Amino acid sequence: MMALLQRVRRARVEVSGRAVGEIGAGLLVLLCAERGDTEVQSDKLLAKILKLRIFSDTAGKMNHSVQNLDGAGQIGGLLVVSQFTLTADVSGGNRPSFTTAAAPEEGRRLYDYFVAQARLLHPLVQTGEFAADMQVSLVNDGPVTIPLRVAPADGAPS
Q1: Within 10 Å of residue 104's Cβ, how many Cβ atoms?
Q2: Which CATH class is domain 2-149?
């Protein structure tokens, strides 16, 4: 399972001109399930995201997580957006291949699982719409953009 995290001051996702998810300061999480992924990879990835210290303290060092943005208990939002294109492989030419992405049904199941677990562990979770044509707008803070990957347990390509 993989994610591309962007530390944001705000982010919003729209479908057909209507806002479906929006946060202030926090993390935009572009999420992709790969073939062979299970709930185990989802849980590991979510734990890493919630604990990742990429928000600045008063000295400007990255010492705070989304669960404690400012060291004084301010909670940041998570905006979770499905994005199978994170698996793009362009090594064989100019047209990307997405063969390592989970099948759509499995991708949806793992996306829904990730979001449900995130909502159990974090109070501010918004989402996009799985498989929809979405427009995502954001103000990247820093900019800080971090790729994360948890390899499948069964040896499938990651």
Answers
A1: 12
A2: alpha beta
Nearest-CA neighbor of 57 among 69, 45, 46? 69
Question: What digits encode the pLDDT tens for the residues 26-42?
Answer: 999 999 999 999 999 99
Distance CA 97, CA 108 (A): 19
Active-site residue flag, 126: no
Of the residues 83, 87, 100, 127, which is catalytic? 83
Supply φ then ψ for residue 68, to 5 degrees: -155, 70
Which residue in 6, 41, 55, 84 is the catalytic one? 84
Residue 85 designated active-site? yes
Active site residue 130: no
* Predicted structure pTM score: 0.93
